[in-house]
């Protein structure tokens, strides 16, 4: 029964190390498929699976450790960031002496040193630097990111990679995210199950404070900070690029905000709040990272070995939502794929618009709409170009459209294609006029 | 920067920088509590879940931890435990896991004990230095009983954790009265504006701001705080409804319509944001204030009613707030106002109306607290800050009644007592994971009755060698637990529910026995995350901890919290 004796490759003592893992992979369970054959082949398959980890931050550190101790031997990791001192309360592969070094490098070396026999290949750069061939080599991708843009990019890339004729082109995407005591883990089978874009409205962006509130009637300390950030800096330090990691810059904003708050008798502006607002800081703790990362890796492990059913099998649960501030609560459910998903669906998505609003207002609203979240859109209809962000000549040519009303540019229910430099694909929307 | 104001040079301290992302959750007070704690981990089995828990506590900066573990590092440890290295084979697991954990945070003190737990527990006061104890399975029942008894008598919170294969569970034994003031309720759902019972200053403010409402220019009309709009239209409504505010859903909808009709549409924007806010707030802001049952539970507690000179401050303040509630018909006002469309000065003035009332309520409560303290002859009085926090959160305070977790005893069944009826209901509820818990209890009974080799060594773990035979035995034990439970509840479960519950239990047992006591790193890491989160809540007395058992199913990725 025990796998140790069955395995002949490698030293016996080396394999003894994986006694616990091998035991589970060498025995059928009540929930495994009746055709599943436990044992050597499963263990071999696991050690050969090439897996990509995106992000080497709070979730990424956990994910790398977990995968290495789950029997994966060929792990790749991408992260463009360097280590900051505020990472040290949870990103446990980094020490004070590592501050300033690349996260992917330090994390990979650390786990390789600790878990013998695992190979971790780091890439310190952007996911956008890599082409389809690169992503094609992996069996699956695990994401531990804090940026929604990066998630949408890899999601669209993996959906685009899938080719019906080639089953190997199906790359499951396992994605984790956290905020304070809350988080989620989800599994996407590109084109087969609901994708990150289908689920975009689960993560609506925070509504921005209207500019006129900031400029004329601030009421909250945050309004004063946003004023310093958006208006005062532009007016007084236009020539200096704001670096939110530069303490001098934050101090300047803090003092500006404080002064404005005093003028309006508003209390509560602090340095920490200034930093939080300007850098859009999301609270993060080791425990939630541990939970969400381990949940992702548990799914990756089950997927790679078939040692138990996993999330994301079509027509079953694919999403686990976690809340830990009031007792512990999870909601595990099937998020349904949207036929009008701009990435994995084939129908244009309805977008309700006010026919009286201008193209400029519509473009501004795209950044905030939970179902779009596009910041630099280029828009065209089947027949004409409405607005181009670039090249400059086209931008100039289409600029007069910005002040026109939508009703002058499109008809009710007309389809438009929207492109954004952050994505390789065009989003299809049907503009439906508000009654 | 002008020359007259001195520059504020101090940014955050290095500690504030390092802990920035967590201080935004539990603040300096929570951090101070963590730093004063000393956690004991009594580790056994593969021992990963305990070490992963500590990792998540060392990182945010607990003061001190101690690992008690007499195990020697073996090959199989290296394939599952991240805090051990090859060179440490043959050394003490307690020593090496402790050292590698300490590397994570130089501010944390760590130590280890390699003595066997049997002799360790014989010493008087062995458990005294610790503020919280974590115990991982497998552990002999007589030892777990000792730890449970200690939790009872010393009021040291104690966690019992079991992690095997794709499943885990943990139970928390908290002190019999574990009150939480700072529960961090969702600010969206907790705004308390008292629109149905405005006090004179609020009414006067409203009268000022809505005076000549109809004749106002567009700018002023569009900047009347929505709160004043609601109060204004409520007065109008009362005039035609026998002095009554809207009573039911139908009336509230009609009232909402009235407010909505007050908005101007002939302005440049074609509508008014403050009116939109007022309309949106009607349904949630016009409900009479009722005490949550969890708050009532605090006021009804005997500790609150029968104060003594030894009563903790929490109960004295609770009693004072109760008497305030009885006298005033409402809890002290929290005093915060949500952001709303308004002129800056008007908004600040409105904030002050609420803050002044909150301060007045606080000072009245404080007076009552001091009165009680004097009457009881207390020498040490409650801090004003504490009373203030209590007043702010009065509507959301919570009392957890800690109770012992199950300790199975060889030859004795599992007792469910007052929880038997609820537990039986769980047997047939597909969302409940109680059957996994019962499988774990059966696992514990198996190890306690298949004790040890002749040398008194480690207990025999089901599935270590012969999974099939052991699964059969453990299933038999699980079935007996189910039958005894149904009997204890004095009820019957009809077929097909009964057979279904049993066949499910048999599957869960098989899955557990399949692992033969092995921990999967992912499940241990996830459970370590859950446990550490609960430890943080218990130590900081913030947020609401699990009461009292949490079960995780890694096959279906679900959790369930049950009270036993
Ligand atoms: Zn989609």
From TrEMBL, chain A:
Entry keywords, A to Z: ATP-binding, Ligase, Nucleotide-binding, Ubl conjugation pathway
Entry-linked CDD domains: Uba3_RUB (cd01488)
Residues in E2 binding domain copies: 351-434
Any single Gene Ontology cellular-component annotation: nucleus
Catalytic activity, reaction form: ATP + [NEDD8 protein] + [E1 NEDD8-activating enzyme]-L-cysteine = AMP + diphosphate + [E1 NEDD8-activating enzyme]-S-[NEDD8 protein]-yl-L-cysteine
GO biological process: protein neddylation
E.C. number: 6.2.1.64
Cross-referenced SUPFAM superfamilies: Activating enzymes of the ubiquitin-like proteins
GO molecular function, one term: ATP binding
Coiled coil (residue ranges): none
Keyword Ligase: yes
Known pathway: Protein modification; protein neddylation
Pfam families from the UniProt entry: E2_bind, ThiF
Function in brief: Catalytic subunit of the dimeric E1 enzyme, which activates NEDD8.
Family of this protein: Belongs to the ubiquitin-activating E1 family. UBA3 subfamily.
Protein name, per record: NEDD8-activating enzyme E1 catalytic subunit
From TrEMBL, chain B:
Pathway membership: Protein modification; protein neddylation
Gene Ontology terms for molecular function: NEDD8 activating enzyme activity
One GO term describing the cellular component: cytoplasm
Pfam families in UniProt: ThiF (PF00899)
Entry keywords, A to Z: Ubl conjugation pathway
Tree of life domain: Eukaryota
Residue ranges annotated for the THIF-type NAD/FAD binding fold domain, each copy included: 19-557
InterPro entries noted in UniProt: APP-BP1, ThiF/MoeB/HesA, ThiF_NAD_FAD-bd, Ubiquitin-activating_enz
Biological process per Gene Ontology, one example term: protein neddylation
Function, in words: Regulatory subunit of the dimeric UBA3-ULA1 E1 enzyme.
Recorded family membership: Belongs to the ubiquitin-activating E1 family. ULA1 subfamily.
Descriptive protein name: NEDD8-activating enzyme E1 regulatory subunit
Gene source species: Mytilinidion resinicola
């Amino acid at each position: 029964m025990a796998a140790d004796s069955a395995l002949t490759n490698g030293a016996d003592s080396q394999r003894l190390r994986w006694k616990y893992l091998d035991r589970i992979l060498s025995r059928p369970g009540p929930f495994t498929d009746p055709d599943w054959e436990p044992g050597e082949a499963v263990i071999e398959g696991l050690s050969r699976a090439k897996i990509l980890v995106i992000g080497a931050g709070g979730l990424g550190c956990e994910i790398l450790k977990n995968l290495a101790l789950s029997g994966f031997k060929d792990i790749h990791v991408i992260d463009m960031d360097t280590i900051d001192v505020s990472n040290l309360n949870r990103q446990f592969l980094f020490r004070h002496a590592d501050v300033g070094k690349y996260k992917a490098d330090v994390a990979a070396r650390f786990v390789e040193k600790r878990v013998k026999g695992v190979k971790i290949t780091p890439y310190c750069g952007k996911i956008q630097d890599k082409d389809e061939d690169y992503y094609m080599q992996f069996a699956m991708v695990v994401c531990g990111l804090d940026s929604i843009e990066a998630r949408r990019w890899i999601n669209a890339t993996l959906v685009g990679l899938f080719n019906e004729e080639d089953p190997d082109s199906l790359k499951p995407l396992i994605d984790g995210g956290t905020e304070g005591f809350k988080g989620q883990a989800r599994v996407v089978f590109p084109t087969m199950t609901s994708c990150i874009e289908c689920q975009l409205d689960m993560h609506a962006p925070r509504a921005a404070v209207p500019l006129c509130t900031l400029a004329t009637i601030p009421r909250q300390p945050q309004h004063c900070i946003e004023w310093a950030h958006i208006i005062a800096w532009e007016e007084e330090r236009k020539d200096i690029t704001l670096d939110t990691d530069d303490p001098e810059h934050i101090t300047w904003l803090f003092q500006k905000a404080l002064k404005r708050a005093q003028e309006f008798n508003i209390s509560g502006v602090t340095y920490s709040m200034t930093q939080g607002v300007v850098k859009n800081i999301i609270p993060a703790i080791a425990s939630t990272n541990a939970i969400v990362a381990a949940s992702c890796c548990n799914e990756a492990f089950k997927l790679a070995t078939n040692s138990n059913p996993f999330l994301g099998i079509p027509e079953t649960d694919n999403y686990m939502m976690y809340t830990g501030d009031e007792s512990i609560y999870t909601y595990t459910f099937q998020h349904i794929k949207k036929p009008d998903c701009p990435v994995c669906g084939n129908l244009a998505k309805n977008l309700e618009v006010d026919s009286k609003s201008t193209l400029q207002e519509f473009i501004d609203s795209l950044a905030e709409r939970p179902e779009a979240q596009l910041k630099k859109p280029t828009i065209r209809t089947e027949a004409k170009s409405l607005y181009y962000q670039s090249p400059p000549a086209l931008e100039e040519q289409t600029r007069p459209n910005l002040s026109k009303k939508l009703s002058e540019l499109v008809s009710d229910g007309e389809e438009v294609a929207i492109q954004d430099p952050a994505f390789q694909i065009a989003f299809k929307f049907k503009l439906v006029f508000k009654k | 920067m002008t020359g007259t104001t001195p520059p504020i040079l101090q940014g955050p301290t290095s500690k504030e920088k390092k802990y920035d992302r967590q201080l935004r959750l539990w603040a300096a007070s929570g951090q101070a509590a963590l730093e004063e704690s000393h956690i004991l981990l009594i580790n056994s089995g593969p021992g990963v879940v305990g070490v992963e828990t500590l990792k998540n506590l060392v990182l945010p900066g607990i003061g001190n931890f101690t690992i008690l573990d007499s195990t020697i590092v073996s090959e199989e440890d290296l394939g599952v435990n991240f805090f051990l290295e090859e060179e440490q084979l043959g050394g003490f697991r307690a020593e090496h896991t402790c050292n590698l954990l300490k590397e994570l945070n130089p501010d944390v003190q760590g130590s280890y004990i390699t003595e066997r737990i049997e002799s360790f527990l014989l010493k008087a006061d062995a458990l005294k230095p610790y503020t919280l104890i974590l115990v991982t399975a497998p552990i002999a029942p007589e030892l777990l009983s000792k730890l449970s008894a200690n939790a009872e008598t010393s009021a040291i919170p104690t966690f019992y954790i079991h992690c095997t294969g794709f499943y885990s569970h943990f139970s928390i034994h908290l002190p019999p009265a574990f009150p939480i003031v700072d529960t961090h309720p969702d600010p969206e759902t907790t705004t308390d504006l008292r629109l149905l019972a405005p006090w004179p200053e609020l009414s006067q403010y409203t009268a000022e701001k809505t005076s000549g409402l109809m004749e106002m220019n567009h700018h002023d009309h569009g900047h009347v705080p929505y709160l004043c709009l609601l109060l204004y239209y409520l007065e109008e409504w009362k005039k035609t409804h026998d002095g009554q505010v809207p009573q039911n859903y139908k009336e509230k909808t009609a009232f909402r319509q009235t407010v909505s009709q007050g908005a101007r549409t002939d302005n440049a924007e074609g509508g008014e944001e403050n009116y939109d806010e007022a309309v949106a707030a009607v349904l949630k802001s016009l409900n009479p204030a009722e005490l949550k049952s969890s708050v009532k539970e605090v006021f009804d507690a005997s500790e609150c009613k029968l104060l003594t000179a030894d009563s903790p401050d929490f109960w004295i303040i609770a009693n004072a707030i109760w008497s305030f509630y009885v006298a005033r018909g409402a809890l002290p006002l929290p005093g915060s106002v949500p952001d709303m469309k308004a002129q800056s000065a008007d908004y600040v003035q409105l904030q002050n109306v609420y803050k002044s009332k909150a301060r007045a309520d606080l000072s009245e409560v404080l007076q009552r607290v001091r009165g009680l303290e004097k009457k009881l002859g207390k020498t040490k009085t409650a801090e004003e800050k504490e009373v203030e926090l209590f007043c702010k959160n009065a509507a959301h305070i919570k009392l957890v009644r800690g109770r012992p977790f199950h300790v199975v005893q060889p030859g004795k069944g599992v007792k469910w007592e007052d929880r038997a009826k609820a537990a039986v209901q769980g047997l047939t509820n597909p969302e409940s994971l109680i059957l996994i818990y019962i499988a774990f209890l059966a696992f514990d009974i198996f190890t306690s009755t298949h004790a040890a080799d002749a040398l008194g060594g480690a207990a025999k773990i089901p599935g270590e060698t012969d999974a099939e035979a052991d699964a059969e035995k453990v299933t038999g034990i699980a079935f007996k637990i189910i039958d005894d439970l149904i009997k204890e509840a004095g009820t019957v479960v009809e077929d097909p529910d009964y057979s279904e519950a049993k066949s499910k239990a048999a599957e869960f047992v098989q899955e557990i026995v399949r692992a033969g006591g092995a921990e999967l790193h992912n499940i241990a890491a996830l459970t370590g995350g859950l446990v550490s989160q609960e430890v943080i809540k218990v130590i900081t007395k913030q947020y609401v901890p699990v009461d009292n058992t949490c079960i995780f199913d890694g096959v279906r990725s679900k959790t369930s919290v049950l009270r036993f």
